[in-house]
Structures are given as structure tokens and as C-alpha cells.
Amino acid sequence: MPSVFKVFLPAQSPADASIKSPNHQSEILMPDLDPQRQAPDALMLTGFWYRALPTDRVHRNQLYKATLLEIPLVIGRDRLGQPFALRDSCPHRGMPLNCGRFDGENLECGYHGWQFDVHDGQCQLIPSLTADQNLKVDRIYAGSYHCEEQDNFIWVYIPDPPPPGAGFAPPTEPPDEAPQIEKFSAKYDLAYLQAEMPVSIDHGIIGLMDPAHGPFVHQAWWWRSQHSIHEKKKNFEPIPNGFRMSAHTPSSNSAPYKLLRLYADADSITTTIDFVLPNLRTETIRAGKYWFSSLTTVTPISRNHCRIDVVAAWNLFRWVPFVPNVLKFVFAKFVEQDRRTMELQAEGLKHNPHLMLIDDADRPAKWYFQLKAAHQESKRTGTEMKHPMPGPVTLKWRS
Ligand code: FES
Ligand SMILES: [Fe+2]
User: Is the CB of 97 under 6 A from ligand 1?
Assistant: First the structure.
């Protein structure tokens, strides 16, 4: 069960900052936070690309299991190396297809030997049919999904669910390509990190965009301590399906940024951070001709489980011994600190507590919920999405 958030509005808002009655505006702002009113799949947005598996773990002619949005998948590469994703359930009687045999082209179910083309799921053969039984085999499909390889990951497009009772058909065409990391030079390094977390997609995402946990969770002598806490002011602006922390000079209280300024010999270092539905956080750091770019996603595995994948590309420190490894170490440490924190948080969430979001530190989290609600509303009504941010906003907090 997802937890219920209470929203505390800032004191200057029309209402005071006390707990609101159920029909107050603050509750209306986040209709999808009430588990009673929530459809089971409302937490996980369909109609988007999701990262499924790192490309280096998926070999030709082999089958792998993965779960996205509670959908069991079997993923693999055909004999030419092209990736595919099928629903891991035979359309005949539900046998997991990953238990079948794969010849690099067709997948044969282990129960009655029906064979499916792995790219579109179309049935190729039903061994039990006799010569005079004219069942149209090619009208039968196993569920299948569009796949793309992008920056170290196989991405799978999860379409909106078909109307109830509809059988499987060829995979739904995605409206766009899978997201990519922005790169600013021809040569760069690329690396990824993963961590699984026993919390819902919402907690995973708001944990990622939360500015106030830094001094408490990410303490390290080479980064910052609790004592380096100071007031910050950042400008945010609406972008399609999300929001941007406008280009700014990164926090002066961290050693790596001081080092970067020295190395790049650049007067200005700028960082831009974007969040875009359903789960994309992009961070770009530019210092002269050097750049670092990352795309972090939080992928819903099930209602109470998500996975964070950080993929980074950079052209700085490529030739300086050890530095890329040190960078990877730093990143891994950060992700591990977040993972550990959410593991502990999951303990507390088991008892379904009432939670709160405060201004300004939790405002990005509020925007996330509002964006999600606006997205769902626009889908429901077939109208254009109403962006919850009226325009640029400045937020202040201490971290
Ligand atoms: S369950 Fe797959 S062929 Fe029968
Ligand atoms: Fe963090």
C-alpha cells in the first residue's frame, strides 16, 4: 500500500499551514496519493520507455528475465544481436516463456511447443494441429514490446494497457525514441551503476530530487559534512512534462567541484538539472570544453520496489590516471548511501504512516506528484496537459 502524504502549504498561501480537511485544495492537488481512490496501476505510468537491462548482460541466443511495472518479461538477443522483449507468459496457458527453447529466431514454449517470433510475438507453429485443422496460427500473438539499445541499456516501451479482454497483437509503436544522454563531444567515456530499492517508484523519485537529505545521508570528509550546511537559492522553470533547475554554479562547499574548476581552468562551471516524467533526471555539468552528463532513471519494478540506474558520460579526466575510477567510486558511494537510506525508510513505511511534504525543500516532490496527476488527467480527458507550474519559481532551503 502506498503511504498517504499530507501537504503543508507555505504560510503566505491563502490557507494557513495547519493540517487540511479532506476536501481542502491541498488534497485536490494530489489526487493520486490516496490509496483508496487509486487504481492499482496508477502509481506506474504507462506509455513511456523504461530501462530494462544493461546491454552488457544480454548475450545472443540467450533468455533473461526482467520485470517492469509488474509486467514479467523475457528479454534476449536474436542471432544477429537484435534485442527483443516478450511478455514472459505463453498466450496458450500461461507457461513462462523463459523456460522455453530459443534458437536465435523463434522461442518455443516448454509446455506444448507453440513457437513465437521473438520480435513481434506472432505464433509460427502449433505442433498439436493436424493437417485438416485450419486454425489461423498467425493470428495468435504472445505479448511483445518495442526495444531499443541506448547508452548501455536495453530500453523497453511499455504501452498503455489494451482494453480488457483484448488478446495480444503486434507490439504497439512507440511515439518517440528511447531517451538518450546528451553528449557534447565525439569522444567520451560511459559507465553505469544500479541499485535496487524496496520502495515505491514515488519514494524512489522524490528521494532522488530531495535537496535536504544531502548533509545527512551523503556525509564524507571529501564531500561535505553536516556543518557545511548553508542557505541555498535555486531557480526552477517549467519544461514540457517536467521542470528544470536552471543553469547555476554548483555548490561551493564540495571538494570535487573545486577540483573541477582547477582542472578545467574554466571561469564558470554550470550545472543544469532536469526532471521529466515518468522518471528521468538529467544532470549536465559544463566547464569550458569539458562536460559531464548523466541520465538517472528510477524504474518501477513492482508497487513496492524500484531500481535506480545512473548512466554517466563525460570527457573530463579521461587521460588523468585514476580519476575516472575515483569518479565511479564516488558515484557508487552516493548511490549506495541512497539505497541504504531507502532500505531503512521502507521499514518505517511498512506501517503505512501519514507523511508530509514541506516548502520549499519538498516543493520539487510536490511538482512531481502534480505533474503525474496532470499527465493522468490529460490522458483521461484527451486534452493537452496543464503544467502545474505557472512559470519560473525560486526556491530556498538549507543544505
Ligand atoms: S502453455 Fe505454452 S504452448 Fe501451451
Ligand atoms: Fe541522495
Answer: no
Which long-range contacts link 314-323 to residues 24+ away (Cβ below 8 Å)? 314/188, 314/189, 314/290, 315/184, 315/185, 315/187, 315/188, 315/189, 315/289, 315/290, 315/291, 316/260, 316/263, 316/264, 316/287, 316/290, 316/291, 316/292, 317/263, 318/187, 318/188, 318/189, 320/263
- Å from CA of 178 to ligand 1 middle: 32
Mutate to test the pocket of ligand 1, among 99, 111, 137, 168 (most ligand atoms within 8 A of CB): 111
Instruction: Please work out whether the CB of residue 109 comes within 6 Å of at least one atom of ligand 1.
Output: yes
Cα(329)–Cα(24) distance, integer angstroms = 46
Residue 128 CA to ligand 1 center (angstroms) comes to: 11
User: Residue 23: is it exposed, middle or buried by C-beta count within 10 angstroms (0-12/13-18/19+)?
Assistant: exposed
Closest atom, ligand 1, to C-alpha of 93: 1
Atom 4 in ligand 1: residue holding the nearest Cα: 112
Write the pLDDT tens digit of every residue in 69-94.
999 999 999 999 999 999 999 999 99
**In this predicted model, what pLDDT tens digit does every residue of 207-253 receive, in sequence order?**
989 999 988 998 776 656 667 788 999 999 999 999 999 887 766 65
- Residue in 86, 90, 116 to alter for ligand 1 test, most ligand atoms within 8 A of Cβ: 90
Q: What global pTM score does this model have? A: 0.87
How many angstroms is it from 147 CA to the middle of ligand 1?
24
Does residue 111's CB lie within 6 angstroms of at least one atom of ligand 1? yes
